[in-house]
Amino acid sequence: MNDAAIPLVRKLMAFAVLSDEENSAIVDLHRRRRTFQKGQTLVSEGEREQRAFVLASGWVCSYKILPSGTRQIVDFQIPGDFLGLRSVLFRTADHDIETVTKVEASEILASDLIESFRKYPRLATAVLWAASRDEAMVVEHLVDLGRRNALERTAHFLLELCARLQLVGMATTAGYSCPLSQYLLADALGLSAIHVNRILRQLREKGLVQFHQGKVVFEDYEALVELAGFESTYLDQPEPILL
Amino acid sequence: MNDAAIPLVRKLMAFAVLSDEENSAIVDLHRRRRTFQKGQTLVSEGEREQRAFVLASGWVCSYKILPSGTRQIVDFQIPGDFLGLRSVLFRTADHDIETVTKVEASEILASDLIESFRKYPRLATAVLWAASRDEAMVVEHLVDLGRRNALERTAHFLLELCARLQLVGMATTAGYSCPLSQYLLADALGLSAIHVNRILRQLREKGLVQFHQGKVVFEDYEALVELAGFESTYLDQPEPILL
DNA sequence: CGTCGGGTTGATAACTTTCAAATTTCGTGG
DNA sequence: CCACGAAATTTGAAAGTTATCAACCCGACG
Questions:
Q1: Does at least one atom of strand C sit less than 7 Å from the CB of B145?
Q2: Please, which residues have CB within 8 angstroms of residue A237's CB and are 6 or more apart in sequence?
Q3: Mean pLDDT, contiguous 10-residue spans, chain A (243 residues)
Q4: Residues of B in contact with A88 (CB under 8 A)
């Protein structure tokens, strides 16, 4: 198998030029393959036994449920992303994780990870970089919810997803496949599904983006970036930093 | 000086029983003391030279400015908190950091930190725990903005601040000193300052909390927890985990 | 063929912002 | 200690944004 076909390799390559040994160490982490059906819960809040995964294919979401029953999706994970890396440290998970589509993921034993970090320290740095980037995205999501209106927020969200997917070769500025329902979108954007529907219509009518039958199609990428106030600096790494 | 007077020591003690050597290693990190006046910028977005600090006294906020000029405060830092730990890894800061009050902070050299982690591995774990807790708080803040209305959100925020301050001995369930203006509160809560004002009035009139002249006074802590849907599990560590 | 999970639309209600202005608080210099 | 100006708080009214409720449509699927 070509290494670049592994999303995690592809993602880390954007940050560090990896040697063949390092690449195969990553490939190694991907034994222990698991398959999950759509809608399956991987981690429940309060759960003790913590497992970490690398997502190979499919989409996942992590969210919190409020006492009132509404939920807020904190983040979606796409191929190449880690699941539950952080919460391994906590005794109990502080949120739920659920598959959005059928998913292939590799279970990562903490011991394996530590061992490969010991052998290939640059790998540790690269993974830490990935974790920092994830945190930066949560922060950007927070800004979305706090200070962007529904239109900007939705636009920004679609653009950010695009940027992330590009890192693993699953999108271009022309568009991408997106398996999210308007309900999922709503729970991520802090809106009602009905309002999301209207906003998507507005974006369509303005000739900016289309989102139909699982496909996001950008009609005017530049104008959308402008509308959303999208800054990709925290996602773009023009070229690998770690040589 | 009594170690427990150092907020970082006090905070980490909630997580790990630290030996005398470990304690003094932490105290050691606090040489290189710096003082900053109120309203001073510590880190600017896009800045290259990254510095990390531990806050010894005073309050700080980290925020993002949108193209429209509005801002969203991502988090406040209080004594015992790290500043800029994560962004040291990124080449450029992705947000601004500014003092809210006069501040005393110790500059931490990455090399010093790594050295003390090498000597005292349990310290590394404790700090990592603190970082995870910080991330959990950002997530909770995100949920605030996405799915709680202004009243719940404000109540939740005041309670969370209380829980954090308790860890460093600066609050009780009776109340605490809080140097935040309603403008700062508004930028953190994703509301207008005017609305914050009204919400605070409502909370006062319901007999739940008062927030006047820099003091938060809880009148009915239990009822407030109920209203806010406040879950402190992610903050409470009933007793040290690492023995 | 009926059901079910999306998606779509309209009407109404609730929440929050914006604008404008008055009042209070607070730090500073006299 | 007082006066002054700047900053923060408070209030009202009007406008804008988003949620909620109630339908209806449509395609997939057993």
A1: no
A2: A14, A15
A3: 80 88 93 93 84 93 93 96 80 87 92 87 85 89 97 97 94 96 97 97 96 94 95 65 60
A4: none
Cα A197 from Cα A183, distance rounded (Å): 9
Burial profile B162-200: b = 16 or more Cβ within 10 angstroms, e = fewer:
bbbbbbbebbeeebbebebebebbbbbbbbeeeebeebb
Structure tokens at A156: 């920004």
CB B67 within 8 A of CB A229: yes
Question: How many angstroms separate the CA of B177 from the C1' of C24?
Answer: 20
pTM of the complete model = 0.93
- Give which of B37, B39, B29, B79 is closest to B56, Cα–Cα: B79
Structure-token pair, residue B74: 């991502």
